[in-house]
Amino acid sequence: MSKVVLGFSGGVDSAVSAVLLRRAGHEVHGVYLDNAAAADREAAVSAAERMGIELTVLDVRKELEAKVCRPFTEAYLRGETPNPCIICNPGVKFKNLIAVADRTGAELVATGHYARAENGALYKGMPSNDQSYMLCRLTREQAKRMTLPLGNMEKTQTRALAAELGLPAAHKPDSMEICFIPDKDYIGWISRRTPLPGPGDFVFHGEFAGRHEGIYRYTVGQRRPGLIDGRKVYISRIDAASGTIVLALWEELFRTEVWARDFNWLIEPPTGPVRASVRVRHTKWENPPCTATVEGSLVHIVCDEPVRAPAAGQSAVLYDGDRLLGGGFITSI
């Protein structure tokens, strides 16, 4: 019987993953990455005990601070829209799971992500809850060590199975917030860490359109309250250096060209143009065909259909059908 190291929080996804791994004949060793309240850690320990799972608790707060929280803060103050889970997965979560696997003699690591891992390649999960986008920065070596038990399941099926098995996590609410900002108060969290930039101007079609309280309160694509000439307006660009926020109409948010930096390939890096599809945010519906070309240190992505408000700091993620090819951080050039 082979051993699998499972990222275990005690929530419904990790609990059902543990059951499915055992059904497949694996010995399960859980790992709880401790970065939150003591109550969450105690709940994970209690859940592991009830399920008879050996659990390792790792304090990752310092590592999370250096590799995720600090870059997240800096990106926000640059006017970007960072996605901390995408950074955390390769640099903290899977790094630590694989380290425990190496120490305990386990070949594979697992999480409750809704995506598929097959023969070292990563693929989309079920359309209703696909999370492959969040895995775009894993290394090829990390992908080779992965198994994802929920890859062919929908969340409703996971909950139904948990209820059928009598797992206490069956009705536990999903965690939708960023783990290190559990109250969702981004502004308060950032303000406790660093001085915030002051007010600046809104600009619409080159003209002054009012004042704002600080760029950290806005992200690209967000609607600005109120109307201009009777029409809704949206954040189109944030200039951190000047404190200016550029506004646009809905139809002006769409782009056919996207540039990505620090691109992470889960295939051999291509030497010519690649036909693929692209996601520029974690949505279920925007995934247009595109052509991607490596140009120096950047990847130039030309979409067959426009995508809405590609935001600097978010990830542009490429797919070949369902297969995840890799992703990079959107940049403005």
Write a brief caption for the model.
With 333 residues, this protein is of the alpha/beta class. The chain contains 7 helices and 18 strands.
Write the layout of secondary structure elements.
Blueprint (H helix, E strand, L loop, with lengths): L2 E5 L4 H12 L3 E8 L3 H14 L2 E6 L1 H17 L6 H21 L3 E3 L4 E4 L2 E4 L15 H5 L1 E2 L7 H10 L21 H6 L8 E5 L2 E6 L10 E6 L2 E9 L4 E5 L5 E12 L8 E6 L9 E7 L2 E11 L6 E6 L2 E9 L2
Helix pairs in contact: 1-6, 3-4
List the defining traits of the structure above.
five-stranded parallel beta sheet; 333 residues; six-stranded antiparallel beta barrel; alpha/beta; 26% helix; 18 strands; single chain
Count of discrete alpha- or pi-helical segments spanning 4 or more residues: 7
Cα end-to-end separation: 52 Å
Radius of gyration: 21 Å
The residue fraction in helices comes out at 25-40%
Q: Element order, helices and strands?
A: EHEHEHHEEEHEHHEEEEEEEEEEE
Runs in which pLDDT lies below 50 for 5 or more consecutive residues are: none
Strand order of the largest sheet: 13-16-15-14-17-18
* Binned strand content: 25-35%
How is the main sheet built? 6 strands, antiparallel, barrel
Principal-axis shape equals globular
Overall mean confidence score, pLDDT: 93
Count the E strands: 18
Q: Pairing-aware structural class of the strands and helices?
A: alpha/beta
